């Protein structure tokens, strides 16, 4: 139990409502988006960067571990406390004062507590958006801490590519506030320090404010479901689409038939779009877009996509077995529902993997064969961003009659898949979910010793306190 003195001092720093200690009040902060949960010593809810600095500095001076928490939508136990009851949660949900749009610079300076949905809702009237497309609804600070990617990475890149500046509170005894960048797109005056806080899950400090690059909101969009002739034709299909469409191609999302089937069965609002209701083994959702309204002399984007698909159909290697176009909102509704649909099927072991683009489908084939032999009751319900080499390799494990699962077997399954993907296929074990307790031992195993030493030295220099669920170094 946390000493009363610390609770009183933190309450004084944060004011009324700023510190939670009641178990019922803290429950929502202790449990993650899926299965991870812990026990917090307290939940600190600062409402300004100065208050964040006060809390971080105090906890650093008194050796109190802190876990920064943003939208708490992650799946790798990076934003929840462990079960020791000694870690405090630092929630960023009240950091919501700054929302400064610079239309001329096409940038937004925003506090870490704003959710992605609200950011884009506010920007829509200006014809702009922050081009990160996710099924979840994270906050700005968490997107930076985990370097979120999303379904339109192929066109717009990840959060790292779209971050122009940050304000950060370092994990040191004074809670040092540093301002990194002023919305510049080019600045070669030294080390690009903001990059050290992107994708490192809060281990070096707490992101309190972000300056994001914005893009023009698409004014024309067309979508199609593509059925490859066989899984090995997916990469050829991607190359053909890019060759014909260039930067018009904004998404190339893979969806397994198993994931689609589970989702259609679970989400009643979805309509089965496939002829005769027969779900193919694998489907690609392709999107093309333009950021300007259609001109009179310009071919409609639907016609452009239809013409390209006709050309791809006639390729000598015949990569395409079937294709049909449909309303973008309806087609994306299925893609965005996949996570919820798969979760309804049983206990999900969610693995976020990244390969060289041509490596996704060979990995799927080999892994499906291995699982059928070694874990025959496990169902592969994968989907993901195959256009950039990413795949959410979800494995559905049936529950016991009492609703429990064999945790040792789940750990063995996770170990088997990740070791094969990294060691034999050159994959990353965390494409865009960041680091957390769930994959800490994979970081320790697969990160070269010299790089871990460099990370430890950097952390000692800027954040010697125990901050963040991930242990870099």
Describe the structure.
There is one protein chain. The chain has 14 helices and 19 strands. It has helices at residues 4-14, 23-30, 49-61, 116-123, 140-146, 153-156, 234-245, 257-266, 301-313, 328-343, 360-374, 407-425, 440-446, 449-462; strands spanning 19-20, 42-44, 66-69, 88-91, 99-102, 107-111, 128-129, 163-170, 177-180, 205-213, 215-216, 220-228, 249-256, 282-290, 320-326, 347-354, 379-380, 383-384, 390-397. The strands form five sheets. A five-stranded antiparallel beta sheet has the order 5-6-10-8-9, with helices on both faces. Strands 15-12-14-13-18 form a five-stranded antiparallel beta sheet, sandwiched between helices. The protein is globular, with a radius of gyration of 23 Å.
Q: Could you name the key traits of this structure?
A:
single chain; 473 residues; alpha+beta; 5-stranded antiparallel sheet; 14 helices; 33% helix
- Quickly give the structural class: alpha+beta
Helix content: 25-40%
Biggest sheet, spatial arrangement of strands: 5-6-10-8-9
Q: Over all CA atoms, what is the radius of gyration?
A: 23 Å
* Number of helical stretches of at least 4 residues: 14
Strands, count: 19
- The parts where pLDDT drops under 50 for at least 5 residues are none
Estimate the strand proportion.
15-25%
Largest sheet: 5 strands, antiparallel
Rounded to the nearest angstrom, the distance between the terminal CA atoms is: 28 Å
Task: Furnish the topology, listing elements before pairings.
Blueprint: H1 4-14, E1 19-20, H2 23-30, E2 42-44, H3 49-61, E3 66-69, E4 88-91, E5 99-102, E6 107-111, H4 116-123, E7 128-129, H5 140-146, H6 153-156, E8 163-170, E9 177-180, E10 205-213, E11 215-216, E12 220-228, H7 234-245, E13 249-256, H8 257-266, E14 282-290, H9 301-313, E15 320-326, H10 328-343, E16 347-354, H11 360-374, E17 379-380, E18 383-384, E19 390-397, H12 407-425, H13 440-446, H14 449-462
Helix pairs in contact: 7-9, 8-10
